[in-house]
Amino acid sequence: MMKNVAIGILVVFLTVVLLQPIAEIANLTKEKVLLGTALTNAARSARDRSLEYELMRNLDAKVDREKFVGYFTESFEDAMNFTCTNKGQSEDTLRFVSNDGRYNEFIVELDFTEEDDLETEQLVSKVEMTATTEYKFKTKYLQLAEEAGNDTATKLTSKRSLILDVKN
């Protein structure tokens, strides 16, 4: 009888110890998908509205950086429930804080490049987006390990590229 109780307690303990990291990995994967989708949707939202109209007539895709950053920021804030803390200060690095406390501070870096397409002789713009934050653990045991000072820092990072060109 006591042997069965001991085995039962051991099974419960091992289940809790093993399932916590698995649940955290599932949460981390979900957060990566959510972040990647938010980046992609924000970029798509900013893409068409930020091209310079006068150059589009010549089939050149030149991005108005200020407009792109504005539309991108607005869409990313809505998708992730964030607020941009440095709006209008930088076109290359954006900082976001979570309105509901679910995330640590996010840093989104935008890298704009322009090049001529040799085949079509058109101007093509490319935007590289990188979003980074320290992952905020959801399970109690890993939160306690983080508070205890253990080296549990995990970066949540997503990178996306957006190529802007005008087709005739």
Given helix and strand content, the structural type is alpha+beta
Order of helices and strands: HHHEEEEHE
Question: Within the largest sheet, what's the order of strands?
Answer: 1-2-3-4-5
Q: Which spans have pLDDT < 50 for at least 5 consecutive residues?
A: none
Instruction: Please report which band the strand proportion falls in: under 5%, 5-15%, 15-25%, 25-35%, 35-45% or over 45%.
Output: 25-35%
- What is the number of E strands? 5
Account of the 3D structure:
The protein is of the alpha+beta class. It has 4 helices and 5 strands, in the order αααββββαβ. The protein has helices at 2-49, 53-56, 65-80, 140-147; strands spanning 82-84, 93-98, 106-117, 122-134, 155-164. The chain has a 5-stranded antiparallel beta sheet with strand order 1-2-3-4-5, with helices on one face. Strand 2 and strand 3 form a beta hairpin.
What key phrases describe this protein's structure?
single chain; five-stranded antiparallel beta sheet; alpha+beta
Structure at a glance:
This protein has four helices and five strands. It has helices at about 1-50, 55, 65-80, 140-145, and strands at about 80-85, 95-100, 105-115, 120-135, 155-165.
